[in-house]
């Protein structure tokens, strides 16, 4: 972006130099050629300015998302589910009316909020992140336990 800014400043300096030199050109054909070149440079300067405005807009959007995530992530804390699955869970009194849920630790550490989907059966809880593909189970397998009936998203 600094390079683009320098390019824009160079173009404006060139435009000023060219415009101030127009008064010294007495040949009409040469003056027309210089005026044409000036118009071309003005268009290039406008294109450079539009690119910078777009870049600033994109950076503001990224900054806003980062600031929102920095606030949002404070609602969660790292948790360990036995036998050793890590994820982020809501802190007490931070649910903001949302149902209890867990976030994917990989996505959390990449600055993204991704709620883990769950399914239960035979003493195990299955966890899956739809965003990054994380998939794990926690709990202890209980052969006498009944798997939940119904159309679970993980299947059998
Ligand atoms: Zn994930």
- Alpha carbon gyration radius: 30 Å
User: Number of DSSP helices?
Assistant: 3
Secondary-structure element pattern, one letter each: HHEEEHEEE
Question: Outline, from the CA principal axes?
Answer: rod-shaped
Strand order of the largest sheet: 1-2-3
Q: Strand content of the residues, in percent?
A: 15-25%
Number of strands: 6
Low-confidence stretches: none
User: What is the structural class?
Assistant: alpha+beta
Helix content: 40-55%
Number of domains: 2
Oligomer: single chain
> Ligands bound here?
zinc ion
Topology:
Elements: H1 2-21, H2 28-72, E1 76-81, E2 85-90, E3 102-104, H3 105-109, E4 117-121, E5 124-128, E6 135-139
Antiparallel strand pairs: 1-2, 2-3, 4-5, 5-6
Helix pairs in contact: 1-2
The protein binds zinc ion.
């Amino acid at each position: 972006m600094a390079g683009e800014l320098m390019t824009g400043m160079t173009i404006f300096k060139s435009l000023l130099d060219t415009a101030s030199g127009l008064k010294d050109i007495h040949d009409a054909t040469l003056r027309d050629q210089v005026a044409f070149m000036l118009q071309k440079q003005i268009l290039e300067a406008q294109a450079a300015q539009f690119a910078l405005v777009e870049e600033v807009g994109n950076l503001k959007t990224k900054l806003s998302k980062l600031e929102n995530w920095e606030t949002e992530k404070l609602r969660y804390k790292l948790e360990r589910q036995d036998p050793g699955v890590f994820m982020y869970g809501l802190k007490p009194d931070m649910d903001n009316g949302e149902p209890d849920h867990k976030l994917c630790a990989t996505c959390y550490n990449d600055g993204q909020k991704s709620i883990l989907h769950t399914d239960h059966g035979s003493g195990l809880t299955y966890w899956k992140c739809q965003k990054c593909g994380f998939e794990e189970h926690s709990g202890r397998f209980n052969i006498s336990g009944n798997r939940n009936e119904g159309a679970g998203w993980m299947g059998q």
